[in-house]
Amino acid sequence: MTDSNHSSKTSNPQETSNPSFSYESSQFVRVPQKRIGAIIGAGGNNRKEIEKNTQSVIIIDSATGEVEIRPGSELRDPVMLLKAAEIVKAIGRGFYYKTALKLIKDDYYLDVIRLKSSKLKNPQQIRRIKSRIIGTNGKTKASIEQLTKTDLVISGSTVSLIGTYEQITTAHDAVVRLINGSPIESVIKSLEDKRKDDKKANKKMWKDDDDIPNMEESFAETEEEDVFSDFEEEE
After folding, report:
1. Which residues are paired to 152 by β-bridges?
2. Whole-angstrom Cα distance, residue 157 to residue 179?
3. What is the CATH number of the domain that holds 95?
4. What is the rounded distance in angstroms from the CA atom of residue 102 to the CA atom of residue 200?
5. Residues near 27 by Cβ (< 8 Å), separated by ≥ 6?
6. What is the pLDDT of residues 152-174, one digit of tens each?
7. What's the pLDDT band for 120 if we cut at 50, 70, 90?
8. Which residues contact 96 (CB under 8 A, 6 or more apart)?
9. Regarding predicted confidence, which is higher, 2 or 120?
10. Is the model's pLDDT at 217 over the cut of 60?
11. Is residue 171 situated within a structural domain?
């Protein structure tokens, strides 16, 4: 059964509301059925805001969890369809709607780490890894988020991150180390050290900027003196 709010738009699956883009421009995402409500929101408000911010049309099949993101009538940049798909995917992974909206920004990304692998197939192993990442009373997860300035969600057999490229790279490395068995204290200590180093580097950068002479002001003063000098000579 297709979501009734957009049932009229599914009569022709090859049709889009924007003649500048073809049906092939559409993006497709599958989300857990239990997360469909979070994508739609109360009174459809969440979906409406995503559509407004990305100039897209979101069609949800509540029976299968399939989500289609079509070009909206005002779409000019097809990249916005990719952003809409990432936002929907993030909500499907368990992020709060407002957190997922950060992905509209050009420098924010979604990173999904899958815990299932050739080495991790046993559900008990995966539960143990998830417990290590969460930590006692959620302390480890909170520390990773705070020290890397990312948002982290653990859902099913995945760990998902939202942040800038540098932020999620740092957080990703920390999560992988925990998955591979590194001591939690060691991982957190590494993040703390990196944060201190980054602060020192930023302070040095600002200091170096302050030490650079303002060449425009110096040039302007010299130029003004030359003008007056010429004027005096003409007198």
Report:
1. 161
2. 12
3. 3.30.1370.10
4. 27
5. 68, 69, 81, 82, 84, 85
6. 999 999 999 999 999 999 999 99
7. confident
8. none
9. 120
10. no
11. no
**Contact between 81 and 37 (Cβ < 8 Å):** no
Strand partners, 110: 162
What mean pLDDT is predicted for residues 107-119?
A: 88
Residue 15: per-residue pLDDT:
45
By C-alpha distance, which of 50, 55, 49, 3 is closest to 25? 55
Give the per-residue SS3 of 154-221.
Answer: EECCEEEEEECHHHHHHHHHHHHHHHCCCCHHHHHHHHHHHHHHHHHHHHHHHHHHHHCCCHHHHHHH
pLDDT band at 234 (very low <50, low <70, confident <90, very high): very low
Q: Is residue 145 part of a domain?
A: no
Q: Is residue 159 part of a domain?
A: no
Three-state secondary-structure class, residue 83: helix
CA distance 14 to 32: 25
Distance CA 191, CA 206 (A): 23
pTM (whole model) above 0.70: yes
- Strands 158-163 and 151-155 come out as antiparallel
Q: Count up the domains in the chain and report the number.
A: 1
Q: Which domain holds residue 58?
A: 1-106
Could you tell me if residue 198 is inside a domain?
no
Token look-up 């591979």 returns 180
Phi, psi of 20 (to 5 degrees): -75, -15
Which candidate, 160, 56, 52, places its Cα nearest to that of 99?
Answer: 160
Cα separation, 86 vs 7, whole angstroms: 23
Residue 54 corresponds to which tokens in the numbers above?
A: 């990305």
